[in-house]
Amino acid sequence: xxxxxxxxxxxxxxxxxxxxxxxxxxxxxxxxxxxxxxxxxxxxxxxxxxxxxxxxxxxxxxxxxxxxxxxxxxxxxxxxxxxxxxxxxxxxxxxxxxxxxxxxxxxxxxxxxxxxxxxxxxxxxxxxxxxxxxxxxxxxxxxxxxxxxxxxxxxxxxxxxxxxxxxxxxxxxxxxxxxxxxxxxxxxxxxxxxxxxxxxxxxxxxxxxxxxxxxxxxxxxxxxxxxxxxxxxxxxxxx
Amino acid sequence: xxxxxxxxxxxxxxxxxxxxxxxxxxxxxxxxxxxxxxxxxxxxxxxxxxxxxxxxxxxxxxxxxxxxxxxxxxxxxxxxxxxxxxxxxxxxxxxxxxxxxxxxxxxxxxxxxxxxxxxxxxxxxxxxxxxxxxxxxxxxxxxxxxxxxxxxxxxxxxxxxxxxxxxxxxxxxxxxxxxxxxxxxxxxxxxxxxxxxxxxxxxxxxxxxxxxxxxxxxxxxxxxxxxxxxxxxxxxxxxxxxx
Lengths: 239, 243
What we know:
The structure holds two protein chains of two kinds. Chain A is built from nine helices and ten strands. By secondary structure, chain A is α/β, with parallel strands linked by helices. In chain A, the strands form two sheets. Chain A has a six-stranded mixed beta sheet, sandwiched between helices. Chain A has a four-stranded antiparallel beta sheet with strand order 2-1-4-5. Chain B has one domain. Chain B is 79% helix and 0% strand. Chain B is built from 14 helices and no strands. The longest helix of chain B has 28 residues. Chain B is globular, with a radius of gyration of 19 Å. Chains A and B meet through helix 2 and helix 3 of A and helix 1 and helix 6 of B.
């Protein structure tokens, strides 16, 4: 469902993403790992058609990100790293705006709203303005926004950052449940999360893919925990 | 269309969910009335609104950029531009929706000055065509200033910079047509050049409209000006959404 071919992006002299290629199929949860500044968010932003790549291309659900950006966005649920939202709006008004923008009307809208609100547990803050919410609640509102149209592809940039252990557990459960009929890409720094939910791992550093494997295989190959595997890969291979 | 309507609705409501709309409207209505009476609205003993319209360019130079500065600068600063442009909405739809929502807000501000027109009608029998053409001119001028403000808001993520640059640009567009500026320019520029500069100024085109003269050249001036600045804003947004 996602096909990336030689994606490249530079910011001035800095090469943020340098020829990244991979494919993700339906039913897979891909854990996108890498040190800070590795290029994870940039790849995700290009997939969500927010940034235009300098080279290469990608397809989401058969639509090219350069030629059919609107169709790509229709098929994607995207949660950005800093969870952008209109802070002066209430959670309800914000989610209704997302429904407007995604063309969800009438009964469909009500069902979508109810489902997203219930699955992200934001009923208690529905009438509160977003600027008054805690970091965890803001992230859950962001997640609800990404899920509301039940997209076939989910791109989540650090979806559990700032959540308490209980919420983390819930969100992981939610992502796991949705995995069956969706294609999910998550970036994270929490390696236990990768072990718990991801069926595949890609480690990226300095804009290049270092490893494309499964958590189990990585652990077996290096005979140590994922934490140590990550350190080994990103310190030795990059240097 | 659905993207346009969604952004338009959200944007228009956002003026009223923050104190912005109320502060803007109170300040605008106060100064528009204050300057009119200071100009000698009653003392002139004439049933017209020229004392009201004559101050509009000066008021708009400061107030319209204040309403426009947040349009894109705020989206950039808060990062919500990333949300907006990962929804199925094109840059053109978002741009036009924001522009028209802000313009509608300014239109409401103008409609709220109608007690002035009602007073004139009550006290005498004014030329309604002149009043309506004055209002049309003011609304078109507000749109022109808004388009300028929209452009500067898109090139900077800092609202203060956006405001200052738009005030300067709008002031240049107004003052280029003032008699004092033209006198000064004619001391060292040929007559044709001075005339060309004054024709590009808001003042020249607004003046004839507030006198009740509707000319195709004046209307097309405003339409071209708005279209030009809004398109420039679209190009800037398309090039550097994230920057």
